[in-house]
Specification:
The protein is built from 26 helices and 30 strands. It is an alpha/beta fold. The protein starts with a helix and ends in a 16-residue tail after the last strand.
Length: 818
């Protein structure tokens, strides 16, 4: 959650904090850290964290962290424990919720909250901040001439489309550096919910319809961020797949679908990157708030997966709607504590009061409270704030701009390229640049996934700086129109409040004669179509998923005029999630899916269309022919339609390509799809053994048979026997991206399969089971473009993992089956 904080901070600063920043700084834990006294004992030096002139057990670094923390807990009062278990609030949140009690501003304006400080133990307040596309803090501060801009990186869909774990780790490192150098301890990211339905308003923050690519992408980014000594909070755990009524919606999901899809991505991320924290989601799962779910937060997350960090709620998680806060409603704090939800965010006084009464009366056991407190203290002991790190407030923004430029270009997907419309490298010939979004470029979505960056490079700016000769009359026409439309849209959004959703900008109406004139003088037309969405609401089908009438008319007229002169038309999609393409893609020569590519987006597009960079992105989600082809379309966002209370995941495991490929529904563009300026040949598939024994390796040679250097994403799909239960036709089980291959250069790619890759979750057995029989390995360039196959056998059934039955259903329904 964590609303449009820039608006909130401005409001709260004006009301309460004007002129107080310097005083806050002087009183901050950081300021105190600068003169922490030391003690000498037995020839060793220790920090006297609480300045009491003696060496307390928790200050004695000769002892294990475990013993030091236990010494603190032993001395803590119930009130202190409660103050640690509940966050310090969020300045300005009253705009949304009504009065909730005082919130601490903290040291970093625009941060989303944090944990409390305890002077008598020398425990500092720690700070958490959004978000998935880069650090979101306030760029300007009262009585401070300095600026605190952060880098706006490409959105989640763009990052995942790179299929490049090394590059994603570099992005994570750059994000983590900004978090650390701006004095923040935990970045509330990444977000990795499954793209169950293309209309989810926050799909731009997420990675894929597939749990493997989602989990691996998140793990790479977490490893990058945490390599900088700061933490992450992977979110939103779990089955948080829509924004409509998100605080209260009850998602009915089978245990099989949960384990195979909606938890598998989190399991991969937890096991491969050990995030410091996990954020429980808003929604109910089979009638239980996820923040109240012992099954989810203790049984699965901690006992099965071995997670050691803390669980925090999403902001006001477990509350029955924001409006309930005004009426004195709160979450069930005792249930949340018992479930293993250690930290309640952002924290309000009413929660503290109820939790303290519960702890004093025994309604909440001392053992549970102590365990949750211990985990939070373990987190605090790892933070830069606790280490008294002297952060600079000066991350290397110039270097990070280059990181985001490269990442955005690598995530772009060439959907269509008839007659080699791209690359277009002739800088002497004129280009007509159409579409309001070419001039009012969309960096990323709104809400907690947005970033306060200094400057966004529009497509206009990117093409200009690359030396393209743009039609001046068009630029002079569009620029003021785009500025006016963008300003009007912002006013409209502000009228709707802090969760106001972005609207589509209106196009210019031009006549046939005008387009014909441009086709005479220009060699090519670039047409940008833009879409934006944000936290707090879902997208709609008309004029969002589908093109608006004015956009269709514009494309028709441009295509007709330019094709009449044998000139090319290329559409650039500046979007965060899936849109309809089937009805119009035949009208144009090229389509470049640029996503919402962050602050350097215009440069990144120019790098790709000019041929400086060969596009190598691949789709991590299916583009359907029409919205109704989506398997969840008939039950999204839920019932009753006008105000959904519940949603049933009747499609089961058949989400995305698992549905389209199994049920033979033709997509517009399939999962894994993406073209290149060169061609690749796959040959010489080999398997390490004809029978599976704990592990199997598959290798294949990939050769660049074209004329320019390029990278290819090699995808391994597995088809399993399906005697005991139904299964998708094939599932992605491994992938790798080649290095940049020069023309005629080859690379051998080796991919591994382990026992769990073969297994499906059999609910009746509460186990992951790999069936006996033949397994087919298909390696290809997309889920439907299979290049080579090979088989192996599993001689007898394999019970890979036995687990406890969780998430009992609260509604009878049957999952979809082929």
């Amino acid at each position: 959650m964590k609303k449009n904080v820039s608006t909130l901070i401005k409001l709260s600063q004006k009301a309460k904090y004007s002129g107080l920043f310097l005083a806050l700084l002087a009183a901050s834990p950081f300021a105190k850290a600068q003169n922490t006294p030391t003690l000498s004992v037995d020839g060793k030096t220790f920090k006297d964290l609480n300045k009491n002139g003696k060496l307390d057990l928790w200050e004695d670094t000769r002892l294990s962290v475990d013993k030091r923390i236990d010494a603190i807990i032993k001395r803590m009062t119930n009130e202190e424990k409660v103050n640690l278990l509940i966050g310090t609030g969020m300045p300005g949140i009253e705009v949304l919720t009504g009065p909730v009690g005082d919130s601490k501003q903290g040291l970093v304006p625009g941060a989303a909250g944090g944990t409390d400080s305890f002077d008598r133990f020398g425990i500092p307040a720690t700070i958490v901040a959004d978000g998935p596309a880069g650090l979101r803090i306030q760029p300007t501060r009262e009585n401070d001439s300095k600026t605190y801009y952060a880098t706006a990186f490409p959105v989640g869909t763009a990052l995942a489309s790179t299929w490049n774990k090394t590059l994603l780790e570099q992005v994570g490192k750059a994000m983590g550096n900004e978090v650390k150098e701006y004095g923040v301890d935990v970045l509330l990211a990444p977000a990795l919910n499954i793209n169950r339905n293309p209309l989810n308003g926050r799909n731009f923050e997420y990675y894929s319809e597939d749990p493997l690519i989602s989990g691996k992408t998140a793990a790479a980014i977490v490893n990058g961020i945490q390599s900088q000594g700061v933490g992450t909070s992977i979110k939103h755990f779990a089955a948080n797949n829509e924004e409509t009524n998100r605080l209260t919606i009850n998602a009915h999901v089978s245990e099989r679908a949960m384990r195979e899809l909606y938890l598998r991505n989190f399991e991969i991320a937890v096991k491969e990157s050990q995030p410091w924290t996990v954020m429980s989601s808003y929604n109910k799962l089979n009638g239980v708030y996820t923040s109240d779910s012992h099954d989810l937060l203790t049984q699965v997350l901690r006992k099965e997966w071995g997670f050691k960090g803390i669980v925090m709620t999403d902001w006001f998680g477990g509350f029955p709607g924001f409006e309930s806060i005004k009426d004195g409603g709160i979450s069930d704090v005792v249930k949340q504590m018992n479930a293993g939800n250690d930290l309640l965010m952002p924290g309000i006084p009413a929660q503290k009061k109820v939790l303290l009464e519960a702890l004093n009366s025994g309604k909440l056991s001392k053992e549970v409270a102590n365990l949750n407190v211990k985990r939070i203290l373990e987190y605090i002991f790892k933070t830069p704030t606790f280490a008294q790190y002297k952060y600079s407030d000066q991350p290397d923004l110039a270097q990070h701009a280059q990181v985001t430029r490269n990442a955005a270009a690598e995530g772009m997907i060439l959907l269509k390229n008839e007659g080699n419309a791209l690359p277009f490298a002739d800088k002497q010939k004129e280009v007509s640049l159409f579409g309001v979004t070419s001039y009012a470029w969309i960096t990323g979505g709104t809400g907690s996934g947005s970033v306060n960056n200094k400057h966004t490079v529009s497509l206009l700016e990117g093409l200009n700086s690359t030396g393209y000769k743009l039609d001046k009359e068009l630029v002079d026409l569009y620029k003021p129109h785009a500025e006016k439309e963008a300003a009007a849209e912002l006013i409209e959004r502000k009228k709707k409040g802090i969760l106001g959703l972005p609207g589509r900008l209106g196009e210019i109406k031009l006549d046939d004669a005008f387009y014909a004139k441009k086709a005479e003088t220009s060699e090519i037309a670039f047409v940008t179509l833009g879409r934006n969405s944000g936290e707090g609401g879902d997208r709609v089908v008309n004029e969002d998923f589908n093109l608006a009438t004015e956009e269709i008319e514009m494309l028709d007229k441009i295509s007709k005029a330019f094709h009449a002169k044998s000139k090319k038309v290329v559409v650039i999609l500046n979007i965060g999630g899936v849109i309809e393409t089937a009805s119009w893609k035949d009208k144009v020569d090229g389509i470049l899916l640029a996503w919402q590519p962050g602050q350097e987006g215009g440069h990144s597009v120019a790098d790709v269309v000019s041929g400086k960079i060969n596009p190598s992105g691949k789709l991590t989600m299916t583009f359907p022919v029409k919205y109704s082809d989506t398997p969840s379309a008939k039950n999204f966002p839920g019932v009753p339609a006008e105000n959904p209370k519940e949603v049933t995941y009747e499609e089961g495991v058949y989400v995305g390509y698992r549905y389209f490929d199994t049920f033979n529904v033709k997509p517009s563009y399939e999962f894994g799809y993406g073209k290149s300026y060169t061609n690749f040949d796959y040959s010489n598939i080999k398997i390490s053994s004809p029978t599976f024994n704990n592990k199997i390796e598959v290798s294949i040679d990939v050769k660049n048979t074209g004329k320019v250097a390029g990278k290819e994403v090699v995808q391994l799909y597995l088809s399993a026997p399906h005697q005991s239960i139904d299964k998708p036709k094939a599932e992605l089980k491994a992938y790798a991206k080649t290095k940049e291959l020069q023309p005629n250069e080859s690379q051998t790619i080796t991919l591994s399969l382990n026992p769990k890759d073969l297994a499906s979750f059999i609910t009746a057995k509460s186990a992951w089971v790999a069936e006996q029989g033949k397994y087919k390995v298909s390696i290809g360039a997309s889920s439907q473009d299979i290049k080579q196959n090979v088989e192996f056998s599993l001689p007898k059934e394999l019970v890979v993992e036995k687990v406890q039955h969780v998430f009992p259903s609260d509604k009878q329904f049957t999952d979809l089956k082929p």
